[in-house]
Amino acid sequence: MLLNDCDPGFKHQVAAEPGGQGIKACFACAACTARCPVAGHVEGYDPRRLIRLVLLGRREEVLASPLIWLCSTCYSCQEVCPQQVSFTEVLTAIKNIAARAGYGPPATEAVIDQLAAHGRLLEVGEFENQRRTDLGLPEVAEAPAHFQKVLGVEPAGGKS
Amino acid sequence: MAVKTIKTPAVIIGGGVAGLAAAIDLSRRGLSSLVVERGPRLGGRVADFCCKATDSCVRCGACRLADLVRRVAARPEIAIYTSAKPVAAEADGDGWRLTLEPQRNNGPAPVVELAGGPLPRRSQVQAGAVILAVGATPFDPSAKSRFGYRRVPGVVSALELEGALEHSLAELAGGRDPRRVAFIQCVGSRDESLGHLYCSRVCCGFALRMARVIQARRPGTEITFFHMDVQTYGRAWAGELAEMREQMNFVRAMPGEVTAGPGGPQVVYAAGGRSQTAEFDLVVLSQGMRPPVGAAALSQLFACTRTSDGFLGSDAEPVASGAAGVFIAGSARGPMSIVESIEHGAVAAAAAAGHLQPLVREAAHA
Fold it and tell me: Helix axis angle, B64-73 relative to B338-365, nearest 10°?
């Protein structure tokens, strides 16, 4: 990989995203990695390396990485960081950028599609409503419009 | 009882290497001075340091103190009061009027006996210039509680190691023979969470020299050096560092925490992108320098400024204090080594002499 292939603006983009402000202060001391419970179990998950990749501008490599979705948000890294980088928050910023750029993890994307189409995580059809009637429960109607608005997705196939 | 007034061209607060160097430089320029030391002996912190030579001199500067004390003793124009502290100060024309108060010291007896001795009673000093050479204060590693200082047996500060270097390290390591020694750098330096963004400049060299002394005395001792980056100032280090990298284990990572293990303190750190745990007999925390404890009181007393890091003086000039006739010498101005402090003391003396020159000339004409 050449320096020319790196995106020098990427770190500024992350720093401008809510939560990402601290990233440029990183000294690469790896106190975060030392204390990270995920780093202790998942090969390749290394907060120090992820921060370095962002600072170097290796945009695609970061956004497409499955590792950025593994943070357990325990905030141990934040506690030990001498530079107040707040890696947990930085990673939230990175994840938001990745999601907008279409790099959401496939499982999450499927959940989003489901929510946008049905307004809930399980599709409610005639079968389910029949069962509810049998049990003396009121029928449930799908109301996905609110979710479509929140998720910023167009109603699929005119169905709403 | 009438308060005695001592008249002197320059009063130097602090009898460490910077203050003594300033006094010698002033005396070379024909100006006498009064050194006021709070403690019972001269030398400040350097008096506790030992020579770090192994095969040859490593220019640590620890031996320079004896030389300075000898030269001070040989110059009758340098007066000394130990166990004394300024409690009041006011600008008086171009100079300063200070009130000194005797200090009770229960510490160790003076190592070097000198003319002057402890301040007998509350006194007034009329001086043309004031040099503040009060030194820095070491960072207390227990403020970074995750490194286990005073909590985990076998975790000590670099200054405690220095104190034991001449004697036995086994006592520090809780009776164990220390065969595995770890150094953790930047404890209290370069730390935004503490508000100490600065590098303390001397700790890397200090730690590596102590590590080398340990290895020279006990060949085969495993040394692990946890650091962010090695900040050794001076040209001599280039070759030495390359050699040390072969003899010691340099780990470019700040540990996450130090815990008590069955065989000694355990250090949790990152290597190869993974969290690792390693056990040692002795873990040494390389504490950084903080502004002198009395910085706030002194800056109020002498109306002088503080640097952006909280030390005495100004960021823009090396020895100026923002107050006319007041100068800063040594590590009170910011972290510096023994040798740098001595040089800085001479620079402060030169600036003080410049301030005193018109006063001396006036006195001659009067």
Answer: 20
CB-CB contact of B51 with B62 (8 Å):
yes
Q: Do A39 and B270 touch (CB under 8 A)?
A: yes
Q: Are A146 and A106 in contact (CB under 8 A)?
A: no
ipTM over 0.85: no
pLDDT of the residue at B116:
67
**Whether A95 and A114 share a structural domain:** no
CATH 1.10.20.10 fits B5-136+291-365, yes or no: no
Pairing of strands B84-92, B264-271: unpaired
Tell me if B298 sits within 8 A of B188, measured CB to CB. Answer: no
Say whether A144 sits in a helix, a strand or coil: coil
Question: Sign (positive/negative) of CA torsion A15, A18, A19, A22?
Answer: positive
Instruction: Note whether B156 and B282 are within 8 A (CB).
Output: yes
For chain B, where do the domains classified as CATH 3.50.50.60 start and end?
5-136+291-365, 140-288
Could you tell me if A32 and A93 lie in one domain?
A: yes
Task: Tell whether A19 and A40 lie within a shared domain.
Answer: yes
Task: Note whether A67 and A94 are same-domain residues.
Answer: yes
Q: Is residue A20 domain-shared with residue A92, that is, in the same domain?
A: yes
Residue A160 predicted with pLDDT over 50: no
A126 plus A51 within the same structural domain: no
Q: What tens digit of pLDDT does each residue of B122-134 get? A: 999 999 999 999 9
Is A80 in the same domain as A15? yes
Check CB contact under 8 Å for A46 and B274: yes
Q: What is the pLDDT of residues B238-261, one digit of tens each?
A: 888 999 999 999 999 999 999 999
- Report the residue of chain A nearest B144, measured CA to CA: A80
Asked if the structure places residue A159 within a domain, the reply is no
DSSP state at residue B332: G
Cβ-defined contact of A34 to B268 (cutoff 8 Å):
yes
